[in-house]
Specification:
Strand content: 15-25%
Helix content: 25-40%
Strand order of the largest sheet: 4-3-1-6-7-8
Largest sheet: 6 strands, mixed
Number of helices: 8
Number of strands: 8
């Protein structure tokens, strides 16, 4: 099997009641990473590992293989984080396909907590599942994604901008197709039960 990496973008669906978060704070945290310590104090009972905070279909699939893979998440709020990194519930997303430099600056100042860990991973298999907007940011944060693994699988639409000899592209048409391809790849590298 070897060392397996999955890089995925954050998701809108969270495993906590965002109405309670909003009632407690008067708002839902967004890109304001500079307020992280205060939010952590006020939302301490909602803080959980990122892989458990995001609750979309792809994250549900990833949790089935959590003992086999190292999950890194490109988060609109945090930048690059490991799936075991504890985070607060928030509502922020990257919707532009052109990089917003202030967001990158904010990540450089307050976030990207696990970028070094990702780069030192020496992965055998890397699976990158990022939307078009997040992939645009990812290639700005990670200088050479081709070096992430000996074999790199990119699950994306036809917009994939990672091109090198060790990349295998999996073109998908929506979240259902993406989840199916992700599960198949994880089953192949991890075995059917993890």
């Amino acid at each position: 099997m070897g060392k397996v990496l999955v890089v995925i973008n954050c998701g809108k669906t969270k495993s906590v009641d965002m109405d309670i978060v909003k009632a407690r704070l008067g708002k839902v945290p967004g890109f304001d990473l500079e307020n992280e310590n205060e939010y952590r104090r006020l939302l301490s009972d909602f803080v959980k590992p990122a892989i458990d905070m995001y609750d979309g279909p792809e994250f549900k699939a990833l949790r089935q293989f959590r003992r086999c893979v190292n999950v890194f998440i490109l988060s609109a709020r945090y930048g690059l984080i490991h799936g075991d990194r504890s985070i607060i519930p928030y509502d922020a997303y990257l919707s532009k396909t052109r990089v917003d430099e202030p967001i990158l600056d904010r990540w450089r100042s307050y976030g990207n907590w696990d970028l070094d860990r990702l780069m030192r991973g020496n992965w055998d298999v890397a699976i990158i599942r990022l939307s078009k907007a997040y992939l645009t940011y990812f290639v700005k944060v990670v200088e050479d994604p081709c070096k992430l693994g000996r074999e790199v699988h990119v699950i994306a639409g036809k917009y994939n901008s990672i091109r090198c000899n060790n990349v295998i592209n999996h073109h998908v048409k929506g979240i259902g197709d993406s989840r199916r391809v992700l599960k198949k790849l994880l089953s192949d590298v991890c075995g059917s039960s993890s």
